[in-house]
Design a protein that fits this description.
Layout: E1 3-7, H1 20-26, E2 30-34, H2 51-60, E3 66-71, H3 75-84, E4 89-95, H4 106-111, E5 122-124, E6 130-133, H5 138-142, H6 148-157, E7 161-162, H7 174-177, E8 181-186, H8 194-201, E9 209-212, H9 218-221, H10 223-234, H11 237-241
Parallel strand pairs: 1-2, 1-3, 3-4, 4-8, 8-9
Antiparallel strand pairs: 5-6, 6-7
Pfam families: Abhydrolase_6
Keywords: Hydrolase
Protein name: Alpha/beta fold hydrolase
Length: about 240
């Protein structure tokens, strides 16, 4: 049994993992999900939310060596947590996620992609502390192959996303890189171009790169397949030896 902590992406919350958590439990794992500060049901004021606060929330939710799964934007918080306390992290799993480069912000990495499918989908608030996704564009961008009830759930629960963490670089990622790292590409992704995911994943050994034929939201589109892939990663020799 592995301890697995699931970290959501921008504007989402722990709610997006509602199908994956029981699937992982059925495979014998202790799986949990949290709302990052300022997301989901967490009421931290957006102006107070930082990348460091994300990392501290993740570490506070760990009770021993933990596999962190970060979706999309969640690649930055899980890396920050591993950089701060690598001994608490059994492995890092990047699920169609940004794999941080030292000195680059998430916003910079997004703009460096080969195309910009999210252009025009952002709605920045008057204080410029949060953004939301256009609810009319979100289904096609994120959930085109997902069950209608999950699309409805997401449209009802997508929340304002604090901007500051996405404009904060990680100056150094060496301690995080000392942990076993894996990447799960989503080959039908319309939010982070699959080719760009392949570029980011190329930093890892080929045997640690996996793929799912889904949209940006495999937790809705293929929860059982995703759980099996995380289970496979949990049994990887590098994880068990770490």
């Amino acid at each position: 049994m592995s301890d697995i902590l699931l970290i959501h992406g921008a504007a989402h919350g722990a709610w997006c993992w509602h199908r994956v958590l029981p699937a992982l439990a059925a495979l014998g794992h202790r799986a949990r999900a949290i709302d990052l500060p300022g997301n989901g049901a967490d009421r931290t004021p957006a102006a107070d939310v930082t990348l460091d606060l994300y990392a501290r929330a993740i570490l506070a939710a760990t009770t021993g060596p933990t596999i962190l799964v970060g979706h999309s934007m969640g690649g930055f918080p899980i890396t920050a947590a591993a950089q701060a306390a690598p001994d608490r992290i059994a492995a890092l799993v990047y699920l169609c996620a940004y794999l941080p480069q030292p000195g680059q912000t998430l916003a910079q990495m997004r703009k460096a992609g080969p195309s910009q499918p999210l252009a025009g989908a952002f709605r920045i608030d008057a204080t410029r502390t949060t953004f939301t996704f256009d609810p009319d564009l979100a289904p096609a961008l994120f959930y085109h192959d997902c069950p209608p009830e999950d699309v409805a759930l997401a449209r009802a629960r997508l929340c304002p996303q604090p901007i500051l963490p996405q404009e904060t670089p990680l100056p150094d990622t060496a301690r995080a890189e000392s942990r076993p790292r894996f990447y799960i590409r989503c080959t039908e992704d319309r939010a982070i171009p699959p080719a760009y995911q392949a570029t980011m994943a190329a930093a890892l050994p080929a045997a640690r790169i996996h793929a799912l034929p889904t949209s940006h939201s495999p937790f809705f589109a293929a929860p059982d397949a995703l759980a099996r892939m995380i289970d496979e990663i949990a049994h990887h020799p590098s994880v068990n030896q770490s």
